[in-house]
What we know:
The complex is a heterodimer. Chain A is 33% helix and 16% strand. By secondary structure, chain A is α/β, with parallel strands linked by helices. Chain A has one domain: Thiamin diphosphate (ThDP)-binding fold, Pyr/PP domains (Rossmann fold). In chain A, helix 6 (192-204) links the parallel strand 5 and strand 6. The longest helix of chain A has 15 residues, at 38-52. Chain A is globular, with a radius of gyration of 21 Å. The N and C termini of chain A lie far apart (80 Å). The model of chain A has no long low-confidence stretch (mean pLDDT 94). Chain B contains 14 helices and 16 strands. The model of chain B has no long low-confidence stretch (mean pLDDT 96). In chain B, strand 12, helix 11 (293-305) and strand 13 form a beta-alpha-beta unit. Chain B is of the alpha/beta class. Chain A binds chain B through residues 24, 27, 56-58, 60, 62, 73-74, 77-84, 86-87, 90-95, 97-99, 101-102, 119-120, 122-123, 276, 279-280, 282-284, 286, 289, and chain B through 4, 7-8, 11, 36, 38, 57-58, 60, 62, 64, 66-68, 70-72, 74-84, 86, 100-101, 104, 226-227, 229-237, 244-245. Strand 2 (79-82) of chain A pairs parallel with strand 10 (233-235) of chain B, so a sheet runs across the interface.
Amino acid sequence: xxxxxxxxxxxxxxxxxxxxxxxxxxxxxxxxxxxxxxxxxxxxxxxxxxxxxxxxxxxxxxxxxxxxxxxxxxxxxxxxxxxxxxxxxxxxxxxxxxxxxxxxxxxxxxxxxxxxxxxxxxxxxxxxxxxxxxxxxxxxxxxxxxxxxxxxxxxxxxxxxxxxxxxxxxxxxxxxxxxxxxxxxxxxxxxxxxxxxxxxxxxxxxxxxxxxxxxxxxxxxxxxxxxxxxxxxxxxxxxxxxxxxxxxxxxxxxxxxxxxxxxxxxxxxxxxxxxxxxxxxxxxxxxxxxxx
Amino acid sequence: xxxxxxxxxxxxxxxxxxxxxxxxxxxxxxxxxxxxxxxxxxxxxxxxxxxxxxxxxxxxxxxxxxxxxxxxxxxxxxxxxxxxxxxxxxxxxxxxxxxxxxxxxxxxxxxxxxxxxxxxxxxxxxxxxxxxxxxxxxxxxxxxxxxxxxxxxxxxxxxxxxxxxxxxxxxxxxxxxxxxxxxxxxxxxxxxxxxxxxxxxxxxxxxxxxxxxxxxxxxxxxxxxxxxxxxxxxxxxxxxxxxxxxxxxxxxxxxxxxxxxxxxxxxxxxxxxxxxxxxxxxxxxxxxxxxxxxxxxxxxxxxxxxxxxxxxxxxxxxxxxxxxxxxxxxxxxxxxxxxxxxxxxxxxxxxxxxxxxxxxxxxxxxxxxxxxxxxxxxxxxxxxxxxxxx
Lengths: 292, 390
């Protein structure tokens, strides 16, 4: 494209993208930086919704603060609750309990979900409340300019670890699996097709489903590690990733610096909102009046 | 759902019960139509959660104990947008944690009720002892320009009634409402009679027509609800009447925040509720609220018995501040005493509406004022009767 003459807008007859119907088109274009992985996540998510033929009217999106919270809010045309930093899962808990018929989806970043809101992540997974959480992990606080986050790799310099990051990163997917979620996977924006399938499965699962999506941030994070193009990250994800069934046969040393991708957990623990409803069922018929 | 609720709650009708203030507040919420409670245990508010966890399933409502107070108010707000009438209850430390989401509820115009059973602070303070130290936190705890509604019950009966009133005010003005209880009232056990279920006023939620803006266009716009196919966008960021975020247009922010403040400040006269007990020729007035209003009233009556005319003003509404009632009092008396279980919080607000002296009668340490302590302050301020208490 760089070497070609740019055709002026009015003469271009582009067919609208078939997934555009899912977006609030009046507020496009998005505010994402050039090369940001959020577009890939949005695309994969919209594709999954299309495949499952979910009516967006039956979905509620709950997001926090950070770049990836903008993926559904405001861009996705659905009910969107854009909450305080770190709290989307807690807000979503209230929504789901009151309206179990609606599909509740949380899309937010590693800082939001694993950092400031980490407690809610653990406990929502433990309750196994039915919602789909996509944690878009770009290894830093991108919106605020590239500060260290709970997932930043060890040894990396950021704007607030100018010498090197001496904290160990959190393995969020493993944490959520241990906490009790019904479905957990990890993919990257390089693995678009498995990611789409995984989002579909997560949306179908009854219970807490969680996907950690490694997603490039070439502007805020890339500037610090000299990976300034989206393709630098995609190649990194391709070269460093290892499928989980292979990873299980590898030693800790062999897995050093690798990204384990695939499905960590799929199970059928009892779902929380439905359990609350079962308690209410006991009182449906009026009990005899008892003196206290 | 209402039938089940009526059946369950009607059993208390026309009966005198002996309840804690905390328990009465929970029943006030249930009568008002509360069908969602999210909370986190904390002394002296835990009994509210215990009653709600027992009763909500019986009226087809939902109780959830969250992982902290941040999550509790978050879940409440989420539930409200999904159609619930919802509440949380806490004490000072939890109330501090809720401040950010109180601002979110104000900005997104989410009706909800937050009970703060105040205890002695700062920090963990005297965890099991009462105080009235959160009066100004209730007013200014969350950042940015805002107005708030806060009510202060002085009896177990009022815990029931004002919690119900809080739900109705929340709906009417589409805003969070705080019930500022204190540990003294919350853990006080006294007689209470419940009204007939059908006699209780319940403000219904006004829902927007499909094409009506849910975040502007009138002082208190009608609300929307998730799942109605409107694709509503709810954000704590500055937003237009449609709800869509606009953080860069000065006029949008000015219009929004000014409206959010004025919908409450302009309705001050309708919202504020005070008890006035005027004594002819009084030169001293006492302003007291919550638990402190009880010994204060006793002291006022005793002073009068001794021939000292004293005015008594009890704000049931703390915020918006009952300015008019305080101005009236200030015109009648020379000195205003403000007994509080803090080092002088509401006294500062009283000072703004009088040119005469305002004397805080402060007591902290987790012990309520005695009648004699307040009486002594009254007599010390009364030119006609400066006799020692005895």
